[in-house]
Recover the amino acids of this structure.
C-alpha cells in the first residue's frame, strides 16, 4: 500500500517571501487584503454559509486589487506597487499562486496563472484611469 499523501507543509509568509525572492513581504499582505476586499465587494460580507461559493476569477481579483490600491494610495498606487516588485497583473497572479502553493489560499482546478496575464496595463489603469472622487 502506498504511503498516504503528505499535505503540503505550510510555510510562513517570511519563508514564502524568501523562497520566491522577487516580491516584498508587503506585496503578499496587499494581495491577501485586496482579495478580502474584492470577495466582500462581489459576494458581500456574509461568511456564515460554508456551502456558498465565494470564488472570484483572476480578472476579477486584478480589478479588485486595482481599486483597492487606488483607495489606499491614490496617484501613488503604481509607485507603491512598483517598489514591492509588482509592475503587471501577472505579478498579482504569481504572488497568489505562491500563497496557494504553500497552503495560505486555495484555488479551483480551472484557475491558472494565465488568468492574470495582461488584464490591464499599469500605466493606463493607475495613472490615466485615476479619478479623484468629489463628495
Amino acid at each position: 500500500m502506498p504511503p498516504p499523501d503528505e499535505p503540503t507543509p505550510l510555510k510562513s509568509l517570511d519563508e514564502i517571501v524568501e523562497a520566491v525572492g522577487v516580491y516584498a513581504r508587503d506585496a503578499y499582505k496587499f494581495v491577501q487584503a485586496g482579495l478580502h476586499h474584492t470577495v466582500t465587494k462581489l459576494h458581500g460580507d456574509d461568511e456564515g454559509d460554508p456551502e456558498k461559493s465565494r470564488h472570484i476569477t483572476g480578472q476579477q481579483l486584478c480589478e479588485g486589487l486595482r481599486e483597492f490600491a487606488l483607495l489606499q494610495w491614490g496617484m501613488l498606487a503604481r509607485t507603491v506597487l512598483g517598489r514591492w516588485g509588482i509592475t503587471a497583473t501577472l505579478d498579482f497572479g504569481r504572488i497568489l499562486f505562491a500563497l496557494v502553493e504553500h497552503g495560505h489560499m486555495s484555488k479551483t482546478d480551472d484557475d491558472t496563472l494565465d488568468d492574470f496575464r495582461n488584464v490591464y496595463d499599469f500605466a493606463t489603469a493607475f495613472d490615466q484611469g485615476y479619478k479623484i472622487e468629489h463628495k
Remarks:
- The chain has a mean pLDDT of 86.
- The helical segments are 13-20, 25-43, 58-73, 77-83, 89-101, 122-128.
- The first helix runs from residue 13 to 20.
